[in-house]
């Protein structure tokens, strides 16, 4: 999902949000529960909102990045 957001901005100059990406979930053949994929999207959307908030406030932003599976200890 992070890569989808990067590609959409790099190629088309548009930004994706949670609702747009959640619509795509039903077309993807994922071997995980739907709630897990939705939670991943929520966390990604939260990371981007925090990123743009920091940019707007003039703080040092950290662009959301790919993280290893061991960085988040939860069912989702």
Could you walk me through the main structural features you see in this protein, from its secondary elements to its overall organization?
About 55% of the residues lie in helices and about 0% in strands. By secondary structure, the protein is mostly helical. It has one domain (about 1-60). Helix 2 runs antiparallel to helix 3. The longest helix is centred in the middle third of the chain and has 24 residues, at about 35-55. The radius of gyration is 13 Å and the shape is globular. The model has no long low-confidence stretch (mean pLDDT about 85).
Could you tell me the radius of gyration in angstroms? 13 Å
What is the N-to-C succession of helices and strands? HHH
* C-alpha geometry: globular
Helix content: 55-70%
DSSP helix count?
3
Q: Tell me about the biggest sheet?
A: none
What is the terminal separation in angstroms? 15 Å
The share of residues in extended strands comes to under 5%
| The number of domains | 1
Count the E strands.
Answer: 0
Q: What structural class is derived from the secondary structure elements?
A: mainly alpha
Low-confidence stretches: none
Report mean pLDDT, rounded to a whole number. Answer: 86
